[in-house]
Amino acid sequence: MTRWTFGAASVRGISHVKNGTRLQDAKRCFEVVDADGASIFCAVVSDGAGSASHGGEGASVVCRTMAEALRSYFANGSRGMPSEELVWDWVDQVRDRIIHAASLRSLSPRDFAATMVLAVTDGSSTLTAHIGDGAIVARSAAEQRWLLLSESENGEYASTTFFVTDSGTPRLRVAECNEDIDAIFLFSDGIENQVLDSATNEPYENFFTPMVKPFISSKALGRDHFLSGRLSAYLDSEKFAEHTDDDKSLVIAVKK
Questions:
Q1: Distance between start and end Cα atoms, the chain
Q2: Contact, 58 vs 114, CB < 8 A?
Q3: I need a surface site. Which of 63, 92, 152, 232 has the fewest CB within 10 A?
Q4: Widest CA span in the chain
């Protein structure tokens, strides 16, 4: 059976380290098997708003709720990718949980503002669901070129974006790609400017190709804890710190 090798890391940005504040990003990634025995890779990354007092907690709620929903979906014998309608239901669950958490503390949902970057793939079909910034990049198995599957969406003003907690209907973007892929990356906006061309949004091959190689050669199936540790150290290096003071999250998976 086809399997996935994957790793993930989240590190605090310099600004949070200096101020002694918690990590505002969150992530979940895992492998499940559907009713047909196919191996499915699922991942979600969330970035809590810097202006939100409990943005990190909001990000944790986003990732925990969506991960629980995906595990339940496949555990109940579902086949194929979740429908857009179902994804909307899950986002509503996230919003309900945040509203409840906010009410217990006499806060508003805006105090838990967070983005959402989600992908579900069996390698032949890939579902993306996205609110706000961050992005998803995958590699075409046939052409070995990097594809931007879901891009960042920014707000009307500089350095603003959209959140799961926005009033009214959230700006959820759901899409399905039916091109065969053999690798996928999800990341928060903390590394966007270093891995995507700011003018064209094209993925930088000289970032993605070297980053994926250790996962291709890894003997591990499922989560590679060693490579996850190396990924964390890399994101925490001066190379990234000199370009951004924001938190950084990155998930990498390859199909074996």
A1: 9
A2: yes
A3: 92
A4: 53
For 25, 32, 75, the CA distances from 28, given in Å and listed in that order, are 11, 13, 17
Q: What is the C-alpha to C-alpha distance for residues 255 and 49, in angstroms, rounded to an integer? A: 32
Paired tokens of 88: 């909307």
CA distance 138 to 147: 5
* Segments making up each domain of the chain, as ranges: 4-255
Q: Are the CB atoms for 6 and 253 separated by under 8 Å?
A: yes
SS3 169: coil
pLDDT of residue 212: 98
Which 3 state secondary structure label does DSSP give 201? coil
pTM metric for this prediction: 0.95
In this structure, are residues 14 and 6 in contact, taking their beta carbons and an 8 Å threshold?
Answer: no
CATH topology of domain 4-255: Phosphatase 2c; domain 1 (3.60.40)
Measured CA to CA, the distance from residue 162 to residue 158 in angstroms comes to 12
Q: Which candidate, 64, 69, 61, 27, places its Cα nearest to that of 165?
A: 61
Question: Consecutive sets of 10 residues in the chain, 256 residues long: mean pLDDT of each?
Answer: 92 70 91 91 95 94 98 93 97 98 97 98 97 97 97 75 96 97 96 90 96 97 97 88 82 97
Q: How many residues does the chain have?
A: 256
Confidence (pLDDT) at 1: 66
Query: What is the C-alpha separation between 30 and 69, in angstroms, rounded?
Result: 13
Q: How far is CA 84 from CA 123, 172, 176, 247, in A?
A: 19, 10, 9, 29
**Separation of alpha carbons 237 and 127, rounded Å:** 32
Residue 78 in tokens: 């579902």
Is there a contact between 4 and 10 (Cβ–Cβ < 8 Å)?
A: no
